[in-house]
Design brief:
It is built from five helices and 13 strands. A hairpin with a 5-residue loop joins strand 11 and strand 12. The longest helix is centred in the first third of the chain and has 21 residues. The C terminus is likely disordered.
Length: 269
């Protein structure tokens, strides 16, 4: 898993190649993509979650975080109220479109090959992370998700397992979710003064309860130097009476660690 260093020209060429490849897939894909929006919310709540808009991160200037809020408001407006009918697929980027200054997007924080940069539309990973995490607590199926390749910040105040997010980059690092059920699901999003909030709602109440957990977690030294972090995510499925139904594999995560895995005090001990 040694990081691959590529020239700027190679990176730009790669971005253009994969973007046009995705455009082609959208044109010829037989998937039925969700596009209907409703102002009225579906009646039954399946999952609600929220994440703070502002976090003080080491070596990240706060103006990037404030600009991120503007970017999240624009993108969330595009997704709020989207209904996924049975058999349809939700595509994060197909619905949001390309983030540009003309649309009002600002420079925000981007993570590129383990480095913190600024770029137009930066910060939208918080939205894809939120949607992915909520989806794990529903019968919807994540059919495309890309893990974060770099673990940039230590686990300070982490409330979810490592690797429970979904990175995004227009348009080829997409988040796609398919509805295999016989009822419609609706994504509802909002921003408060402090949080990004989301809900998955449906026509009928839930019949299952889900518990997402980390089954295995390990850190290995890399031959090339540094450390790599790994884990396995699973979810336990119960009926509404609490009877265990099954234990489902979700995903396997691997990431380059951009910090030392042990604190100095622990290392001396």
């Amino acid at each position: 898993m040694k990081p691959i260093k590529r020239s700027r020209l190679r990176l730009v060429a790669g971005i253009h190649y994969y973007r046009w490849k995705r455009y082609g897939q959208w044109l010829i894909n037989r998937k039925s993509f969700a596009k209907e929006k409703r102002e009225e919310q579906l009646p039954c709540l399946h999952k609600r979650h929220q994440t703070p808009l502002l976090r003080r991160l080491k070596d990240v200037e706060m103006w990037m975080q404030h600009n991120k809020i503007t970017n999240l408001r624009i993108a969330a407006k595009r997704l709020n109220g989207i209904v996924i009918q049975p058999g349809e697929t939700f595509s994060y980027w197909k619905l949001i479109g390309k983030p540009t200054r003309r649309k009002g997007y600002l420079d925000g924080m981007l993570l590129s090959h383990g480095r913190v940069l600024s770029g137009v539309g930066g910060g939208l990973c918080q939205l894809s992370n939120l949607i992915y995490w909520m989806t794990l607590f529903t019968p919807l199926i994540v059919t495309e998700r890309h893990r974060h390749s770099y673990d940039v910040f230590p686990d300070s105040r982490r409330t979810q397992p490592f690797g429970s997010g979904a990175t995004c980059f227009y348009n080829y690092l997409d988040l796609q979710i398919t509805n295999p059920t016989q009822q419609a699901f609706q994504l509802c999003l909002s921003l408060t003064d402090a949080d990004l909030a989301g809900e998955w709602r449906a026509e009928l109440p839930p019949t299952r309860r889900y518990e997402v957990y980390e089954k295995k977690h390990w850190i290995t030294p890399a031959i090339w130097g540094g450390y790599e972090r790994h884990n396995l995510l699973y979810r336990r499925v119960y009926d509404l009476e609490g009877t265990f139904i099954e234990d489902e594999f979700i995903t396997e995560n691997h990431a380059f660690m951009m910090y030392e895995p042990l604190l100095p005090e622990a290392a001396r001990g």
